[in-house]
Amino acid sequence: MQSWFSFIPESASTVSGDVDALYFYISGVTVFFTLLIAALIVYFVIRYRRRNPFEIPRPIEGSTKLETLWSAVPFLIAMTIFVWGAKVYFMQYRPAQNAIEIYVVGKQWMWKVQHATGQREINEIHVPVNRKVKLIMTTEDAIHDLFVPAFRVKTDVVPGKYTTEWFEATKPGRYHFFCAEYCGMNHSGMRGFVVVMEPTEYENWLSGNVGQSSPAAAGRTMFESLGCVSCHGANAEGGRGPALIGNFGSKVVLNNGQSVTSDEGYLRESILNPQAKIVTGFGPIMPSFQGQVTEEQLLQLVAYIKSLSTAKPETATAKPPPPSAQPSATPKASPRGSPNGK
Ligand code: CUA
């Protein structure tokens, strides 16, 4: 499993080749100019050395041509690095569409993983080869950072918000991942493996590890036990809070006239700090659930609310929620008739 050049890790994702090419280009430019400048210094020291103690050097006027040249050439080289670097950066960090979504919670000092189909694991992430995988990540304590060297992806995991990281593995195998942000005593032990499997093997793994409810199903149970349902009935009964069917991914109009797109971060904020963004037509009556739900439970609640939005293709990989939670084909209007009740 060694790469041809042992200073860099194996290359096993769709972006790793591009990252390496850029890296070698920058290294090549750096080495070329280092050698060029060092050689010129040696040459000039010898060529223009003082030959006798009374020698007076010829005055130099400067050369516009030369100065233009040594400004323009480095500028053009720097711009190739900038343009190429930006291209690779956007390829790597623009969130993937139609990816398998996996929830990851960092904690001193382990990684807790939940699959949309219900499997849970610690310090291992099983994924199929040649499929886009998107990690939706948060942490219970310090800042961590999930780094998979073989995939050339690395993203901070930050308290109080969700960050995402995606990759598409190109060959089966076990690839080390690490925490890449110093997070306390056992930071160096906070690591594990991404296990990349052939599709059939992955299906077997999925079917052999059921028994735990999916995040969406667990979220539904929490939704009911926390009493959310009395205001936000899944079918918009209740009426004291916005209907949640079709909410995820939609534009939500707030009482200050602004609108936001409902994403994981918005749902999370609305559960922990409901007064931050109040949907127009509703009062500030929702209590905060700060301290009542763990990060994993929050992800489950978010997964449940996402599952109520059938339009999102990503949720196709999730098990459908129990029949009673299945949204009807067309979302009913809120009983109070709020036009922006979503
Ligand atoms: Cu977690 Cu370092």
End-to-end separation? 51 Å
Specify the helix fraction band: 25-40%
Strand order of the largest sheet: 3-2-1-5-8
Overall mean pLDDT stands at 83
Small ligands present? dinuclear copper ion
Number of helices: 6
Task: Give the ordered list of helices and strands.
Answer: HHEEEEEEEEEEHHEEHH
By oligomeric state, this entry counts as: single chain
Helix/sheet category: alpha+beta
What percentage of the residues does DSSP assign to strands (E)?
A: 15-25%
Number of strands: 12
General shape? elongated
Low-confidence segments, given as residue ranges, are 311-342
Largest sheet: 5 strands, mixed
**If you compute it from the alpha carbons, what radius of gyration comes out, rounded to the nearest whole angstrom?**
28 Å
3D structure, described in words:
- This protein has 342 residues and is an alpha+beta fold.
- It has six helices and twelve strands.
- The strands form three sheets. Strands 3-2-1-5-8 form a five-stranded mixed sheet, with helices on one face. A five-stranded mixed sheet has the order 4-10-9-6-7.
- It is elongated, with a radius of gyration of 28 Å.
- Bound molecules: dinuclear copper ion.
